[in-house]
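Entry type: protein chain
Record version: 2
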Amino acid sequence: MSSNLERVVPILQIADFLLVPIQIDLDDRTVGRLQQQLMREIERTRAKAVILDVRMVEVIDSYISYTLSETAAMARLMGCRTILCGIQPPVALTLAQMGVVLEELTVARDLEHALVLASSL
């Protein structure tokens, strides 16, 4: 019962990678819950890549970007690469202006590009 409560977003398994379409606004609490959910799914599925599709996300602040980078670092330690795709121009502008560096994340233009990158790992 508690695992359903902790589910923040749907996570779809495609071959040996996970697709995570984030269609909700992320805040500090939600991104932390997402991180926990992803770690459980990576462990359960033994995925070699995670694709975070953020095209519906309108705001990524410094804490959220830090947490996404931290999540990618955790995934990497579990043998899993993280690909971020769909960053909208206003979000890209904000992140660039804040000087945010998304460490441990591979960035793809869109979902199609992310799928190509995930398939080549």
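Comment: The two ends are 35 Å apart (CA to CA).
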